[in-house]
């Protein structure tokens, strides 16, 4: 997991290039003058004064010596006991909070101590006031509080806004200040507490580049949920009919099915069909209200980089007439921090975590908050366009959201299954934060931040909501025909994505569904020789639409991108682990990143048979080796050793294809398929190889002809375009959309990936929506 990256503000060249950050402490009452006496240098007095230090150092030396001794004398039991105790110290400590002894915190330092307002807008500011922010302070009936960080100019000022500098934030006395980085928008946590302390009942979480459409929040959101001015209405709600669906893309509902929000798992990007039907829910408990943004909506870096055409800014429009839609318990969506309305019963859900990367903080907060919102009977509602955000045409930081793509799918599944036996909401909140730290979604820093946040909420007078009965896990009533509501979203033009929506789209979507149905239980194992930090997510985006999952292997491990380390020449030895991990899969397709798979041309393949390029001469060959010590002869000797240990059925099959001990089968093995019925055979052969250094190009053909006769192989890969070297001029001339696979093709950058997508779109036109 990435930790918050900090970028320093630019400084004049005559200043220290590495200045120490200012550290603001709460006010302390220390004497201003101290008289320092000179210490007596007498040795006995020195020993007396420093006795505790001497004892501490001595104990440390004895401990280290004991540990060294235990290691060398082989007292394993004692050593393990010592190490286990050390590991116990590393465990995350569960915060102890006495909820009945929280001291109130009153604003006694700021000039706004007596100010009160029920409606607040909270923004984070790093530069001088933007034009959008200048308009935001003019929204009638709402008070803006701007939260500064270490990059904010010291002379920041905007009429109509309350500005809190780092120093002013520190003097407010909130516990959370101790856990917040100096240069991050997560300092908005202080702004939320300040607003609640000063009478907030509604908080609009915003940024300084969004303009409220028509300058009226009440026109778009349900600002009032109770009382005479509240809209008493029944809301459209996503159906809970599919128990396996836990996340939705709300942009489809509002007419942009080719766009997805930041925080949507990439494996769900291809789910672009509209709802078969909706249900309904009574309004009044939409405590979190997510607005849609026109212009530059909340999208991730994969979308931003792969669909950006030159320097032209995005100006994406959503259907302003589509009805708002609620999410039932068990279904989630990404929630951001720049266009979201929070009502008082959900103020606890405003906490932005501090230990995760910047572009992940509000998304993780949103999923964490949605799960806990179900505990108080609340729900999230998505609204038609509420703000217009301007695309500043600047680099979008992929590195700051890398851990988001890796963890978010697993997080959603975890949250839906999570349960707590605590009896009060704040105890459940702390329980979940602790559990998420144990699971690695964030660190113990955010467990401590949660404890501080909850105590600060109580200290400023917030009353925690009562728990409601949870619907999850209980049998749900069947949705009758009379309970179903239909809404067919518009399909707004997507010319900004290089795609003209036409009548052929339904045909193309039908193809996608057919491919997914065919390969939806096939695991793609992909070995990347190129830089995975630039291409891993792109490969998952491309092939993840089709296959059950995409497992990435590489020469170098990358924990953040879930890339496993294995050398290509021995990759087959890692495959049994993947077989075991996906034991219910229908089959496993291995693919190197220098070979392109045209999945639309392998639909006719028999998924119960072996596939390999044994009829492609440039890929498969038979070599007669000699008695010398060259590499081929060494490989042949090891093959014969394995063959001699094979059970009879393997040996018979092998010798029917290769009956000469000096004959060595070679296959480049860039692409091959192992069906589930041959998995146990493959694993048995891997075990026979054991520690022998048999190369993948030798091991795979040996395995295949041992498992089955080549005449039984499916011929689907026979027409593969295979060249030893790529064309020297234009690599596009090598590609054909009419064959099952093409080799070689190099993809090591995002630009090369975009080029690949454009040529593959001949066979899958929907791919053009990825570039």
Automatic annotation (TrEMBL):
Residues 1-24 are annotated as: Disordered. InterPro entries: STL-like (IPR005049). This is Probable glycosyltransferase STELLO2. Transmembrane segments: none annotated. It comes from the Eukaryota. The lineage of its organism: Eukaryota, Viridiplantae, Streptophyta, Embryophyta, Tracheophyta. It comes from Cicer arietinum (Chickpea). Residues 7-17 have a biased composition (Low complexity).
């Amino acid at each position: 997991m990435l930790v918050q990256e900090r970028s320093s503000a630019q400084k004049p060249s005559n200043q220290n290039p590495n200045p120490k950050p200012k550290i603001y402490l709460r006010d302390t009452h220390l004497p201003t003058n101290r008289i320092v006496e000179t210490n007596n240098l007498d040795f006995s007095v020195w020993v007396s004064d420093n006795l505790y230090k001497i004892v501490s150092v001595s104990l440390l030396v004895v401990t280290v010596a004991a540990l060294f001794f235990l290691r060398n004398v082989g007292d394993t039991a004692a050593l393990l006991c010592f190490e286990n105790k050390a590991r116990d110290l590393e465990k995350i400590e569960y915060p102890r909070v006495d909820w009945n002894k929280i001291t109130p915190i009153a604003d006694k330092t700021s000039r706004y101590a007596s100010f009160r307002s029920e409606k607040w807008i909270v923004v984070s500011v790093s530069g001088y006031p933007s034009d959008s922010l200048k308009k935001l302070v003019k929204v009638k009936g709402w008070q803006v509080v701007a939260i500064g960080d270490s990059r904010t100019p010291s002379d920041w000022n905007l009429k109509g806004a309350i500005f809190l500098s780092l120093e002013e934030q520190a003097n407010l006395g909130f516990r959370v200040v101790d856990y917040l980085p100096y240069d991050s928008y997560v300092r908005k946590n202080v702004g939320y507490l300040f607003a609640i302390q000063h009478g907030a009942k509604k908080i609009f979480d915003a940024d300084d580049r969004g303009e409220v459409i028509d300058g009226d929040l009440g026109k778009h959101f349900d600002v009032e949920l109770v009382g005479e001015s509240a809209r008493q209405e029944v809301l459209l709600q996503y159906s809970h009919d599919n128990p396996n669906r836990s996340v939705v893309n709300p942009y489809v509902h509002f007419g942009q099915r080719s766009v997805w929000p930041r925080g949507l798992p990439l494996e769900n990007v291809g789910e672009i069909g509209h709802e078969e039907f909706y249900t309904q829910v009574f309004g009044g408990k939409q405590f979190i209200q997510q607005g849609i943004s026109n212009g530059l909506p909340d999208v991730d870096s994969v979308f931003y980089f792969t669909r950006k055409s030159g320097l032209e800014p995005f100006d994406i429009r959503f259907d302003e007439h589509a009805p708002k839609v609620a999410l039932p318990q068990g279904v989630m969506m990404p929630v951001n921090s720049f266009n979201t309305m929070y009502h008082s019963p959900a103020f606890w859900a405003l906490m932005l975590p501090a230990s995760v990367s910047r572009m992940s903080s509000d998304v993780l907060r949103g999923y964490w908050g949605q799960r806990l919102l179900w505990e108080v009977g609340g729900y999230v509602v998505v609204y038609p366009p509420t703000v217009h955000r301007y695309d500043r045409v600047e680099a979008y930081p992929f590195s700051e959201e890398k851990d988001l793509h890796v963890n978010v799918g697993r997080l959603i599944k975890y949250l839906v299954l999570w349960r707590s036996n605590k009896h009060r909401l704040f105890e459940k909140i702390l329980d979940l934060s602790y559990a998420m730290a144990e699971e690695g979604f964030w660190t113990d820093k955010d467990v401590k931040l949660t404890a501080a946040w909850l105590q600060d909420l109580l200290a400023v007078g917030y009353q925690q909501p009562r728990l409601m009965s949870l619907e999850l896990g209980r049998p749900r009533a069947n949705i009758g025909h009379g309970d179903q509501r239909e809404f067919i979203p518009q399909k707004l033009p997507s010319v900004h994505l290089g795609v003209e929506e036409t009548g052929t789209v339904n045909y193309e979507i039908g193809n996608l569904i057919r491919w997914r149905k065919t390969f939806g239980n096939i695991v793609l194992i992909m070995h990347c020789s190129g830089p995975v930090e630039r291409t891993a997510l792109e490969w998952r985006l491309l092939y993840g639409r089709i296959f059950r999952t995409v497992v990435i292997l590489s020469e170098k491990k990358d924990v953040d991108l879930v890339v496993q380390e294995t050398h290509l020449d021995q990759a087959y030895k890692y495959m049994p682990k993947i077989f075991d991990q996906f034991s219910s899969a229908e089959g496993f397709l291995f693919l190197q990143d220098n070979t392109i798979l045209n999945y639309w041309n392998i639909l006719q393949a028999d998924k119960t048979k072996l596939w390999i390029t044994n009829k492609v001469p440039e890929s498969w060959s038979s070599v007669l080796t000699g008695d010398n010590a060259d590499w081929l002869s060494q490989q042949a000797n090891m093959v014969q050793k394995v063959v001699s240990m094979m059970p009879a059925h393997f040996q018979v099959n092998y010798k029917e294809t290769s009956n000469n001990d000096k004959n060595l089968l070679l296959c480049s093995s860039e692409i091959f398929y192992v069906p589930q019925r041959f998995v146990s055979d493959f694993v048995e052969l891997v075990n026979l190889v054991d520690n022998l250094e048999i190369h993948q190009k030798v091991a795979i053909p040996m395995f295949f002809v041992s498992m089955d006769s080549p005449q039984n192989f499916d011929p689907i890969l026979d027409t593969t375009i295979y060249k030893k070297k790529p064309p020297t001029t234009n690599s596009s001339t090598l590609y054909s959309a009419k064959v099952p696979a093409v080799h070689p093709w190099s993809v090591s950058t995002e630009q090369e990936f975009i080029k690949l997508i454009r040529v593959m779109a001949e066979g899958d036109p929907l791919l053009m929506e990825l570039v």
